[in-house]
Amino acid sequence: MSAATGRIAITKQGTQQLPATERLPIAANVQIKRGWWVARNASGYGVPVTAATGLISGGIALEDIDTTSGGLGGSDGDFSIEVEVGVLDLVSGTSGDALTDANIGAVVYGIDNQTAGATSGSGARSGLGICMGVNSDTGKIRVWVGKAAAAVVAAKLGSASPLVQSGTATLAAGTVTVTGVTLTASSRIIVTRKTPAGTVGDLSAPSASRNTGTGQFVINSANASDTSTVDYVIVG
Fold first, then answer.
1. What is the Cα–Cα distance from 201 to 221, expressed in whole angstroms?
2. CA–CA separation, 49 vs 232, rounded Å?
3. Dist. CA 181–CA 151, nearest whole Å
4. What does the DSSP assignment read for 25-82?
5. CB-based burial of residue 195 (10 Å sphere; 0-12 exposed, 13-18 middle, 19+ buried)?
6. Mode of pairing for the β-strands spanning 188-195 and 37-40
7. How far is the C-alpha of 161 from the C-alpha of 113, rounded, in Å?
8. What whole-number distance in Å separates Cα of residue 14 and Cα of residue 200?
9. CA 44 – CA 26 distance, rounded (Å)
């Protein structure tokens, strides 16, 4: 299903033991309508869910807001909206992204502002909630969303925080391409030498070699004979 352009009726499952709503600061230059699935970007500001990496579970918008130049304008965080959290209905993806009761407890991934999928789209989407099964009344998929859900998603995906990733790579002729990570335009990459080998040189991870779409970046040494093992940490 394509992304919504108008308001969406909000349905949720059962009573809420955790807070039912949260206040979400909104990013600049976005438009959100009531009922849309929203997420926090790498800087912590609310945006409509899209098939993108680096997003964190937010909730379902309870208000309309427009921070584009034709609307309220402003900068990141100048405005905020209330979002519904807990177990709420979303449209299920189709084909390989279809969600059923068999997916209960699994991470679901954002496809658009109303659609949840079963897969990461080959690393192109963010994990934004936990599948709670099919709502037989609406035919939609029940998804746990919000800050608490984000913590469970992070644990299931093997990271203490959805904003921090780390790993080790080995240079060959002074360079190595790291793949299978989540990158955003604002990600910070820190590279340190773990085991010196060859003729060492200064390390760098140039912005020009970062690909947010495929989730990869290049680590270079200033010396082409550098074969060191290096550690990296990605923040955001």
1. 5
2. 28
3. 19
4. EB-TT-EE-TT-EEEE-TTS-EEE--S-SS-EEEEEESS-EE-STTTT---TTS-EEE
5. exposed
6. unpaired
7. 23
8. 60
9. 9
pLDDT > 90 fraction of the chain, expressed in percent and rounded: 64
Tell me the pTM: 0.62
Rg (CA), the chain: 20
Closest by CA position to 130, among listed 95, 98, 94, 88: 88
| Residues making up the chain, counted from first to last | 236
Residue 236: per-residue pLDDT: 63
Q: Which two tokens stand for residue 136?
A: 């037989």
* Segment (H or E) for 109: strand 107-112
Give the three-state DSSP class for 148: helix
